[in-house]
Every structure is written in C-alpha cells, then in structure tokens.
C-alpha cells in the first residue's frame, strides 16, 4: 500500500469504528467494571440485525473496488450495509440517550461533534467511492440509531450503573483556585 492521502483516509475510516469500540472496551477493562460489555452487547445485537437486513435483495450491490469490500465470508460480503456507519451511528445514539437522561449536552458537545464529523465523513467516503448507496446508508443509520437508543434507554431504566458518562452535569463541577478546589454537587 502506497502512502498517499487516499490510502491514509481509507485507513482512518476503516479503523475509526474499531478504535471507538476499543476505547469503550478498554476503558471498562481498566476501570474494572462491566459497562463496556453492555455497550458491546448492544453493538453486537445491532450489527447482527444489520447483517440480517443486508441479506435483502434491495441492499445487494456488486462492489468491485477492493477498498469497498470490507469483511467477507468466503467470496460473499458479510454485510451489504456499511458496518462502519452502523458502529458510528450506534455509538452516537448510545451517547445521545445518556445525554438526554442526565441533561449533559453542554459538556458533551465536542464528543457529539466529533462523532457527527466521523459519520458524515464515512458517509461521503462510501458515496464518493461508490461503496454503498443512499438506501444502504439510510438503512444503516435507522437500524443503528433505533437499536442504540432503545438499548441504552433500557440499560438506563434498570437503575444499575452499567452505562458510560452518567450523572456528571454542569452543576457537578470542580474549579481550582490558586491552592484550593471548590466543588459544587447537586442531587
């Protein structure tokens, strides 16, 4: 693989969903909790539904470019719907459900902006390189957002501490003076 801009962008977009999932799983591992496993369980269910939906003839499109192939099983693609979009949109829905529950939009704007940039960039990459059509990308977004939001809402409704990014709002912040921390905690 030659080092040019197209190859670097290709590598970035192929690895960004893996890096994102790796972040959640490794953070859970290093914090010695199971939050990453619940994120991963919802993602696996969402990917499974996406792969099953892609078996419909409506979504099947012959992809000739090597960089469009993604994962294959034998000579057949695992999914005709872009799984990178599914992972990114699922993660966005996961975070939005938590933000809505705890009303933490103000402190999570950079996270949402980064995910939206990744989603739009991956969408443009798929369309410009003729890797997926509009229908496949729309199906990916609908499946991933719906299942991600429903799964996270379910996790939040259990009342257990099994989701990331919970409970820290603008009211719960610490500020440092010259030598002291001043904290406010609201319940």
Task: Annotate the secondary structure layout.
Blueprint: H1 5-30, H2 35-53, E1 72-73, E2 76-77, H3 83-102, H4 105-128, H5 134-157, E3 173-176, E4 181-184
Antiparallel strand pairs: 1-2, 3-4
Helix pairs in contact: 1-2, 1-3, 2-3, 2-5, 3-4, 3-5
Please characterize this protein's 3D structure:
The chain is mainly α and 187 residues long. The protein has five helices and four strands; from the N terminus they run H-H-E-E-H-H-H-E-E. The strands form two sheets. The chain has a two-stranded antiparallel ribbon. The protein has a two-stranded antiparallel sheet with strand order 3-4. Strand 1 (72-73) and strand 2 (76-77) form a beta hairpin. The longest helix has 26 residues, at 5-30.
Q: Characterize the largest beta sheet: strand count, sense, and whether it forms a barrel.
A: 2 strands, antiparallel
Strand order of the largest sheet: 1-2
What is the first-to-last residue Cα distance? Answer: 55 Å
- Oligomeric assembly: single chain
Q: Helix count, per DSSP?
A: 5
- Helix percent reads 55-70%
Gross morphology is globular
Structural class, by secondary structure, is: mainly alpha
Number of strands: 4
pLDDT < 50 stretches: none
Rg for CA atoms: 19 Å
**Sequence of secondary-structure elements:** HHEEHHHEE
Proportion of residues in extended strands: 5-15%
Q: Roughly what is the average pLDDT, rounded to an integer?
A: 84
């Amino acid at each position: 693989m030659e080092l040019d801009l197209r190859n670097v962008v290709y590598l970035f977009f192929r690895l960004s969903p893996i890096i994102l999932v790796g972040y959640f799983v490794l953070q859970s591992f290093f914090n010695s909790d199971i939050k990453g496993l619940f994120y991963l369980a919802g993602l696996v269910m969402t990917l499974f539904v996406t792969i099953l939906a892609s078996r419909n003839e409506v979504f099947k499109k012959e992809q000739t470019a090597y960089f469009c192939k993604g994962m294959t099983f034998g000579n057949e693609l695992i999914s005709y719907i872009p799984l990178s979009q599914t992972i990114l949109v699922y993660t966005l829905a996961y975070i939005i459900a938590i933000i809505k529950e705890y009303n933490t939009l103000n402190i999570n704007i950079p996270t949402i902006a980064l995910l939206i940039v990744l989603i739009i960039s991956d969408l443009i990459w798929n369309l410009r390189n003729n890797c997926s059509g509009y229908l496949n990308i729309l199906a990916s977004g609908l499946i991933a957002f719906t299942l991600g939001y429903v799964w996270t809402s379910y996790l939040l409704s259990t009342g257990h501490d099994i989701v990331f990014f919970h409970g820290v709002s603008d009211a719960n912040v610490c500020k440092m003076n010259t030598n002291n921390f001043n904290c406010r905690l609201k319940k």
